[in-house]
Amino acid sequence: MNKKILIILLMINTAVFAQLKNEPDGFRGIKWGTNLSASKEFYKLGESGDNKSYYNENEKMKIGDIDIERITYESNKDRLWFVTIEAKGITNYHELRKIFNSQYGNSTTSSSDSCGWHFNKVLILMFFSHRYNSITVIYKYISIQNEIDNAKAKKGGGDL
Predict the structure, then answer these.
(1) pTM summary value
(2) pLDDT tens, position by position, 58-71
(3) Residue 70 dihedral angles phi and psi, to the nearest 5°
(4) CATH classification of 2-155, choosing from 3.90.660, 3.40.1000, 3.40.50, 3.90.920?
């Protein structure tokens, strides 16, 4: 019985990953791991330990026809690993989902107000908050996230 369940789960995972396409190797031409502080386009918003937040004042603030409120780039040890996109409106949320499904394939997880694409190296999550009428999209480079998690665990600061 357990063997059958394992085979079914493997088939589901294979089917889910087979849908995905175009795994991003960065964001808007900036590859994961890039040192943003070396670029004149990026301005530091803040810093906490090994983490720094940046914005690009020359950033195109649109995805398709959707106006973007803010795009924040995060680095760890001067390596790009995390991007946050913020926008407004339920109509824009549905339109962004269509754009992302077209670009990356059908989302691997989905509900009425969230969806995600889990690639081998990158995780993309999209959320809609009805309370704030806001959209948040997160791109996360998994290998640097794993390094951060491992460093926290070694220090005893891992999640329980």
Answers:
(1) 0.83
(2) 999 999 999 999 99
(3) -160, 145
(4) 3.40.1000
